[in-house]
Amino acid sequence: MSAEKKSTTTISKSTGRKKAAEPAAIAESHFLDRDESWMKFNQRVLEEAQDPENPLLERVKFLAITASNLDEFFEIRVAGTLQRIEDDFNQPQRLDERGVTAQERLDRLSQRIEEFVAAQYQCWNELLLPAMHKEKIRVLRWEELGDAARNHALQFYANEVDPLLTPVTIDPSHPFPRVLNKALCLGLLLRHKRRQTGTRNVPPALGVVTVPRSLPRLISLPCEDGYCDFIMLHELIEAQVEKMFRGYEVLTRVAFRVTRNSNLYMQEEESRSVLESVRSELHNRRKGDAVRLEIEISAPEEIVERLRTNFELDPRQVFRTDGPVNLSRLMNLYSEVKRPALKFPPFAGREFRLSAKSTDIFDELRRRDVMLHHPFDSYSAVEGFIEAGAVDPNVISMKQTLYRTSKDSPIFRALIEAAQSKDVTVVVELMARFDEDSNIRWARELEDAGVGVYHGIFGFKTHCKLALLVRRDPDGVVRRYAHLGTGNYNPVTARFYTDISLLTSRMELASAAQKVFNYLTADTESTNYDPLLVAPITLADKLVGLIERESEHAKAGRPAAIVAKMNGLIDRRTIEALYAASQAGVEIDLIVRGMCSLRPGVKGLSERIRVRSIVGRFLEHSRIFHFANGGEDDVYCGSADWMPRNLVDRCEVVFPVMQIDLKKRLRDEILKTYLKDNTKARLLQPDGEYVRAPKSVTPFTAQDYLMSLAEGSEEKVPIRKLAGD
């Protein structure tokens, strides 16, 4: 099934290329480029690092996040573009939907990335380092260390670092070491001290030392005069390289780092389980083709060229860094510096409490649905729901999806405990990007504990967030209790990702969730998952249907409006439906954190559409969709963004919120709060640029407001209380 609108393209039999049914220039003027849009999202994160209104260590953290984001962009998006260039070699180059070749796309991206990297290091050198120095936090070079600091660093080197190092001099018997993805290394140019007659023109040897990943990148030094000092690990190693390469004169020493293609190229094989296939591909990922070389700006051209040639990179794939090669490691500063005044004030979400008349969580859910807005509402309520199911003897079976979890997760432990006395089924998504290794481990541990572990439908990531408990209640009736969410079952990220959880015993939702689990474990498609919208089966068409319904309401003079919050919006069929709704008179407000291909505010096309992005203390991750529906509001939440990968390439669930007070909370307390933000919001312009929301006499920050609401909540009875406690 495809969510793409079939009438928008035709296929040329002679070339196989797509030809637009309307002039390409007109069609493409309606859509913003997804990669450009992603770069602008990362720019908004960088702006938070540049913003002096944010606490200093939070600014360092934002800068580290931009670097981590850019790493993934290279590993996936840039790597994919390079793969297409390679696939097109010696054959007519394919044009993408914007009418450009993969090489042209790469050239344009490279220019944008170069500008962004320059801005990152300008932020570090000109803004953060001086501000840190004022706060007596210093990242020092080796030559800047005093005697006490130097002795401490040398002691650390002797005890912790030196035993882990493997220096390599490249020659016929010592080939270039296999540099793993994103591993920090030192490159050296070496001249042998025992130079013999006639060897004057022999080029210097190349030496390589891999910096151990198991050690912190920032080494804490003794505090003196109130200063909190650090030295980068590679600086410490650089200062000792002569000891590793005795007999050589060290001409050059520079840090470098290689990023590799991390896409997993999976193929279904009867002889292999999905777990075995993913495990094999993970091994290949560590050695994928190089897509980027980062190297210190001080590196002489000779070593740059030798490394570039070794990794088979074009000159534009080399990025010279005016500072630490791996900015993402600056995250260590945030955790190592114990200065609360330089961080956001601590916040703990409000704990959910049962109603006074309820004896346990199941009794509560028979009375009403429960909705939680994390992290403003503590995630412990979700953990408590799963833990209650694990220990309650009346719970007969448990089913759950796991996309990403964390070490020592209470949910993970509860599932293992539950398997000792009841039927437990878990659908583990092995290909959750960059969590594949840990998910393989979780899957094996669950299997060893007696859990039935499945991996969904081959070729479709299982991205939906569902848990289903079946319980024989005190009245003898067997009921289903469900958790439906927008975020991963990960209590760590739940503290700084905004997400929605719905706990319910509502029959229509729970029975539909059962159908989804049957689909995931047996590949049995149902013709009706109502009231759930399920990808890749019903979601794409029903989403467009909901948008078109608003158009009909507008044409009939009934209330018609859409407010939708998501992480990304690039699905063209959905965007075209939104354009049509705007032209029909529907007022549309979109809160899109990241990529957005829709072009708002274009006369005659999208003048009733407004798009904003909010980047703040918490990562906006919740997906909430409100449709006015002629005055009878419909509100949905779910795991899916409005992107092709979510609508047609993943198993997703979008669920309605039916209880009137909860719909009102989503509409009035949550969505309207984000629309009022005039501090952290950026507004997307018709040309694709983002501008700050207009300043107001009264600054308003949505996340701050929602935190203040949570801190003023009343307490009742703890959720973890079970019947008979």
Automatic annotation (TrEMBL):
GO terms for cellular component: polyphosphate kinase complex. InterPro entries: PP_kinase (IPR003414), PP_kinase_C_1 (IPR041108), PP_kinase_middle (IPR024953), PP_kinase_middle_dom_sf (IPR036830), PPK_C_dom2 (IPR025200), PPK_N_dom (IPR025198), PPK_N_dom_sf (IPR036832). One of its GO terms (biological process) is polyphosphate biosynthetic process. Its EC number is 2.7.4.1. ATP binds at residues 69, 497, 593, 621. It catalyses: [phosphate](n) + ATP = [phosphate](n+1) + ADP. It is an enzyme of class 2 (transferase). One of its GO terms (molecular function) is metal ion binding. Signal peptide: none annotated. An intermediate of this reaction is the autophosphorylated ppk in which a phosphate is covalently linked to a histidine residue through a N-P bond. Residues 360-524, 532-694 form the Polyphosphate kinase C-terminal domain. Mg(2+) binds at residues 404, 433. Residues 31-139 form the Polyphosphate kinase N-terminal domain. Transmembrane segments: none annotated. The keyword Transferase applies. Residues 151-333 form the Polyphosphate kinase middle domain. Keywords: ATP-binding, Kinase, Magnesium, Metal-binding, Nucleotide-binding, Phosphoprotein, Transferase. Pfam families: PP_kinase (PF02503), PP_kinase_C (PF13090), PP_kinase_C_1 (PF17941), PP_kinase_N (PF13089). Residues 1-26 are annotated as: Disordered. Belongs to the polyphosphate kinase 1 (PPK1) family. HAMAP family: Polyphosphate_kinase. This is Polyphosphate kinase. It comes from Edaphobacter modestus. The lineage of its organism: Bacteria, Pseudomonadati, Acidobacteriota, Terriglobia, Terriglobales.
